[in-house]
Design a protein that fits this description.
The complex is a heterodimer.
Chain A (H helix, E strand, L loop, with lengths): L1 H21 L10 E7 L2 E3 L2 E5 L3 E6 L8 E2 L3 E2 L8 E5 L4 E6 L7 E7 L5
Parallel strand pairs in A: 1-4, 3-9
Antiparallel strand pairs in A: 1-2, 4-7, 5-6, 8-9
Chain B lengths: L2 H20 L5 H4 L3 H25 L3 H28 L7 H19 L2 H30 L3 H25 L10
Helix pairs in contact in B: 1-5, 1-6, 3-4, 3-5, 3-6, 4-7, 6-7
The chains are: A alpha/beta, B mainly alpha.
Chain lengths: ~120, ~190
């Protein structure tokens, strides 16, 4: 009986070790990258929801310069046709943004908590 | 209506007079502008607004007005280059027409008025005119130029340019209402 209990304990211990070794070293999931296209004087998608740590790229496809500007949060500065700019999402919350040059062009970036494991 | 306001509206009327006498769908096959004329109209309309913008940059001290004017010069210059490139690719040579003639004639009056005004009067006239002008242009592009364009690429380019004119119209209305942002930018 004692031998059986000991064997069972070893199996359990090994299983526990096995599960530990297969767990990811970092509990944070891989950050994602999203692209917002600027085309036809619109941000596409107009609203984007990401997690903190993700990267957002704005890419200007229009023939005129644009920006992606959320006051005191992020600012791409001038993006000519074909240029892009990336931002690592850090400040959580809803951030409305505009094109500084064309202030009626509006988008929204929502930054949520990092995903749970 | 003040004399200033009348002249401002005249810019819009100049374009619409040409388009409305041509008519819309019914006249499309016979009286509408040809592709070379459409290219001529777009180039004229663009150049006129670039010239207005340059005058505003030279005369206005209002930050919002200056930023708007700079945007008109930059954006319409980009459109101008794009249209010239497309016309060259398609082998289309711009032609004058009643509409482009009306545009240029109206622009001469507006330019003369812009050159006589100063300060807040200038700013108000410039922005009021930009609102009327872009409204007229967007209406003409949608109602006359796009329906009459025969070449698919030209038609597509006109459709692609509409958001620019519409955003300029919205921007002009924002400045007109005093709602322009105060940030500076590169």
């Amino acid at each position: 009986m004692l031998r059986q209990i000991t064997s069972a304990a070893i199996v359990v211990a090994l299983a526990a070790l096995s599960s530990l070794s297969s767990a990811p070293a970092d509990s944070k999931p891989a950050a994602k990258t999203y692209t917002v296209f600027i085309r036809g004087f619109q941000f596409v998608p107009q609203r984007l929801e990401v997690e903190a740590g993700d990267t957002v790229i704005w890419q200007n496809e229009d023939i005129v310069p644009h920006t992606a500007t959320a006051k005191k949060v992020f600012d791409s500065k001038k993006l000519d046709q074909g240029q892009s700019w990336s931002y690592v999402a850090t400040k959580k919350g809803s951030h409305p943004y505009i094109c500084f040059f064309h202030p009626t062009m509006a988008g929204e970036l929502v930054i949520n908590e990092t995903r749970a494991k | 209506m003040t004399k200033t306001r009348i002249l401002s509206v005249a810019a819009a009327a100049a374009l619409l007079a040409g388009t409305l006498t041509i008519g819309t769908r019914a006249a499309k096959a016979t009286d509408g502008p040809t592709d070379p004329q459409i290219v001529g109209i777009v180039l004229a309309a663009d150049q006129i607004d670039i010239d207005y913008g340059k005058i505003a940059l030279a005369k206005s001290k209002n930050k919002a007005v200056r930023e708007f004017a700079q945007r008109m010069v930059t954006d319409h210059s980009a459109v101008q280059n794009s249209v010239i490139g497309l016309a060259s690719k398609l082998g289309v040579t711009a032609e004058d027409s009643a509409i482009s003639g009306s545009l240029k004639s109206g622009a001469r009056d507006i330019t003369a008025k812009l050159n006589t005004l100063k300060g807040k009067e200038f700013d108000k006239f410039y922005i009021d005119n930009e609102v009327g002008y872009h409204k007229a242009v967007t209406d003409a592009v949608a109602g006359v130029l796009i329906p009459n364009a025969q070449n698919a690429e030209l038609k597509s380019a006109l459709e692609g340019a509409q958001p620019l004119f519409l955003k300029h119209l919205e921007h002009a209305r924002m400045v007109q209402a005093g709602g322009e942002g105060k940030m500076s930018h590169n």
